[in-house]
Amino acid sequence: MNTALLSLGTNLGNKLENLNLAIQQISELGKVNQISSVYQTPPWGFKSDDFYNIAINLQTELDAESLINKLLYIETKLGRTRNNATKGYQARPLDIDIIFYNTDIINTKTLTVPHPRMQDRNFVLIPIIEIISNFEHPVLQKKLEILLDECNDNSMITKTKHQL
């Protein structure tokens, strides 16, 4: 059994519904052990509506490549379209990233794990720390709470009252 730590974000449409539908779909890929609180966060790297972000701890039999392919399918199924002509970030109904997969280090054409910019983003670090605070980044070899202390992201992250 493999442990995947996922980061989910949404800033288009009914954000809570988007997250709930994503969780339902992800639960078909394994056992969802933990879901963080829902955090409201400003967009990172572009101007748009605020995001709702969560982290999920998923136990799965799938290998990392199969998992990312299924997660990308879920994004598409729930309304995400990728515009390769647009440079940079853009608003989206759903974004799912594999942040960690066990303690594996993966670098393929379709997947880089640990996520290469997770240590720079409060909206990833804070929800993940909520569910696995004692985890050590396998490349940077630092506990996640140290990475959060060192993070230069000054974005205002607010825990919402919503539970999923």
TrEMBL record:
Keywords: ATP-binding, Folate biosynthesis, Kinase, Nucleotide-binding, Transferase
Source taxon at top rank: Bacteria
Entry-linked Gene3D superfamilies: 7,8-Dihydro-6-hydroxymethylpterin-pyrophosphokinase HPPK
EC numbers: 2.7.6.3
Record-annotated membrane-spanning stretches: none
InterPro entries per record: Hppk (IPR000550), Hppk_sf (IPR035907)
Pathway membership: Cofactor biosynthesis; tetrahydrofolate biosynthesis; 2-amino-4-hydroxy-6-hydroxymethyl-7,8-dihydropteridine diphosphate from 7,8-dihydroneopterin triphosphate: step 4/4
Domain 7,8-dihydro-6-hydroxymethylpterin-pyrophosphokinase residue range list: 6-132
Pfam families: HPPK
Family: Belongs to the HPPK family.
Role description: Catalyzes the transfer of pyrophosphate from adenosine triphosphate (ATP) to 6-hydroxymethyl-7,8-dihydropterin, an enzymatic step in folate biosynthesis pathway.
Protein name listed in UniProt: 2-amino-4-hydroxy-6-hydroxymethyldihydropteridine pyrophosphokinase
Organism: Wenyingzhuangia heitensis
